[in-house]
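Action item from last week, closing it out:
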Amino acid sequence: MNLPLKPMSAVLLALLIHFPQTSAFADVRLPGFFGNHMVMQRNADLRIWGWCDPGELVHVSLNGSQSSTKGTSEGTWRVTLPPMKASSQPLTLRVEGKNKIEITDVLVGEVWLCSGQSNMEWTVAASTNATAEIAAADFPMIRHLKIEHRPSTVPLDDVAAPWTVCSPTVAGSYTAAGYFMARELHKQLGVPVGLINSSWGGTRVEPWTAPTGFKEVPALGGIYSSVLGRTPGTSEYQNTLSDFIKANEAWNEQAKDSLAGNLPVVPSPAYPESLKPFQSHQDPTMLYNGMIHALVGYPIRGAIWYQGESNHTEGMLYFEKKKALINGWRKLWNQGEFPFYFVQIAPFQYGNEDGTILAQFWEAQAAVQQLAKTGMVVINDIATLQDIHPPNKQDVGKRLAMLALKNDYGMTKIIANSPEFESFKAAGDKFMVTFKNTAGGLKTRDGKAPSHFEIIGPGSRTFVPASASIDGDTVTLSAEGVTTPAAFRFAWDKLAEPNLMGGTGLPVGACRGGKVPDFLSLIEVDQDYELVYELDLGKLKKTVEYSIDRSGTVSEFDRIAYLLELESDNLGSQKLFVSMDAFTDDPGKIGIPQYSADAFFQQPVQGVECYSTVPSLNLQGVQGNIEFWSGNYATQNSTDVPGASGTIYDFGDSMSEPLDGYGSMQIHDTTGKQTLFAINHWGVGGNADIGIGNSSGSHRDWTFSSNAKSYSKKTLKVYVRLAEKEPKR
């Protein structure tokens, strides 16, 4: 069997760290988490290992089972005892070599690894109704072990941590999610339960992942290469270091010649960044090395996981990272596809962040269930929107226990999974969404109509709130103005606390389905507006040449609109359509405000409506402002635009000479203090400033960003609504 034993150098390193006062192999020794009150996994090969003198005879016995072996030349030993049934009677594990070890009060039952960030580390003492829960925590057959926070650049083979017996004296310090799961398992199964709590608040998923996990996921090849490059002995590390040594040797010779000849010398080669060891506990593999590796091989039933807040902006990339974590652990544990149950993070107010970012992350978490023997707990019904740590860990633990009872302990009739989106069907102006795992039918917690459903269709411009009704497993959706619904989404916002649940009370998680119509179909611009200009922004130059210019044929108009479409590797596809009451009656002044157009506008605009693939820019009835001119401009807010800064380039800048200078074409939402779009400095072509929404740089309006070349596609269209044309909505 592949146990987590390392070459002599790594073993010595671990021993020097944890046992500096003792000789390395004077006594036979077990890993530091083998200790009194421990729980060993029932019905599994019992792997036991440790260290001793080379060739030393080691004898191991537990409850009548025994095995002997000799120490290897590296000073390690290992044995396997046959599987045992659950035992609530205290057993003694004996290990004998030149010395004797006795570990007492050993139980055989169910062992679960508990890992993740702060919501897994969250204690019973910090949970709802803590005083009463701690007072009632008299469960001597529940045991808990907490691994100390310990990052490491190399895999450590040993970890010292004591097991404690659950009682009111110590239960307050236990992982709450793990404890409430263990309590339910113990009550239902009547067997001992051991919790190995290896968690650390605020941590990402990458540091918990083993190198082999990254290796097997192509999308994470960059991380794997980075790990290999920092690992002595790999070809990547050896080759880079060898090249560095050669470069230094050559430099040394050159420096010697320069010294002898009183000549200047160039700086020595810099030490390669790719060779420098990871430093932070947030770096890849650092917590696997220090807090998981030593446990690998200790038989467990499975793992529970509560983490994601620190990775929540990554969308489906998180799915790839979870594949690496789970498959890497399973491969190294060498006990097959053990169960892995996890908690979908709760709704939370992540500052000013777009609400759909968290929804996309929920979708990635749900996708993890594609992996064998995994399951997800939904908790959008017990969130605390202003606290990232929902204190109700009782329901979290119970829902985790239900997954285990159903899938691992034979209680197959339990409904353990929340209802999940299964299919949809459009019928006229209705959209019907069907769910599975509903436990006899859907219902709502408050008896009201289902909340947080939205639908979209051609002409609806964006997702709109839907009226919803329940019929068994199906929710029927409709909305005024959506005559042909094409897609739906549910609970698709960071603050969504929907009321929909299954028959057993388990909440329905965020989901979406259907196909969102393309952007132009959503806004139906051609029905209300006439195209005046079209410009490929990849062909920007001082004198603008439109591919379409109908300004000479345009009659009286009452609204002006702009459609900007951008494509880039970093931001993907971004589209924005913004319209407003006409700010001029001259069609020659509504395009790029080049000097020849004599277009100079620094003024409010009314009736602003904005529709965008960037959800935060879907706006109506906001106060707008335009800054159109061909000249230079300064940060001073000389026209007193409300809320604008006088020290950065934003939505309140001032024109300055020369009038045929830098150039600004910007439309702003002054209510929300944001740029809707900007096209600046067009005279420099690929170094122009172009952007949708606020820039993440030092200036909100993209000034000095010089980023036009980063877009693979960039198109501007300018429209007007003719005064005599009645809008279709």
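Closing note: The radius of gyration is 32 Å.
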